[in-house]
Design a protein that fits this description.
The chain is globular. Helix 1 (2-13) packs antiparallel against helix 2 (19-35). The protein has helices at 2-13, 19-35, 45-58, 64-92, 95-100, 109-119, 123-131, 135-144. It is mostly helical. Helices cover 70% and strands 0% of the residues. Among the domains are: 2-58, no CATH class; 107-144, no CATH class.
Length: 154
């Protein structure tokens, strides 16, 4: 799932990835998975694609946990952010998932994404992006963008 979302999110926001870039993403996540002790991971991007398709065909099913997860999203995000989450998910999930979760194709979001791509380097864009974040998480999320400084005492 992380491989698929990483690839698709980048492609929605930036541009299509090259086959070499998809291979690199797959290799990185495979190394992470191996270090976590996960066995039988696909060894290549084509092998991952086949495995992903097999999982989508055989293992995809909504459950009470899916319902609960979306109820929690709505509760914690509020109506507008929840609608935005579902719209973005509609752009990044595979078609069978989109259909099962009734996400739609999010056509209304595409002009906003085009606007984002053309203005993301502007200070105003950063302000607008940060204004969408829940207040209690803004500082922590902003800290993710900061480059840590080296500690000279280590």
């Amino acid at each position: 799932m992380l491989i698929a979302y990483s690839i698709r999110a980048f492609e929605v926001l930036e541009r299509p990835l090259t086959p070499a870039e998809c291979t690199e993403i797959t290799e990185v996540f495979c190394r992470v998975g191996q270090r976590m002790g996960i066995v039988d991971l696909p060894a290549s991007y084509p092998a991952w694609q086949a495995d992903r398709q097999r999982h989508l065909t055989a293992d995809l099913a909504p459950s009470r946990f899916t319902t609960d997860l979306y109820q929690q999203y709505r509760r914690h995000l509020g109506g507008p952010r929840y609608a935005l989450l579902r719209a973005v998910q509609g752009l990044v999930v595979p078609a069978p998932v989109r259909e099962q979760l009734h996400l739609g194709r999010s056509a209304w979001l595409r002009p906003a994404l085009a606007f984002y791509r053309s203005t993301r380097h502007l200070t105003l864009s950063k302000y607008l992006k940060n204004s969408m974040l829940p207040r209690e998480y803004r500082a922590r999320i902003k800290a993710l963008d900061e480059v840590p400084t080296a500690n000279p005492h280590l």
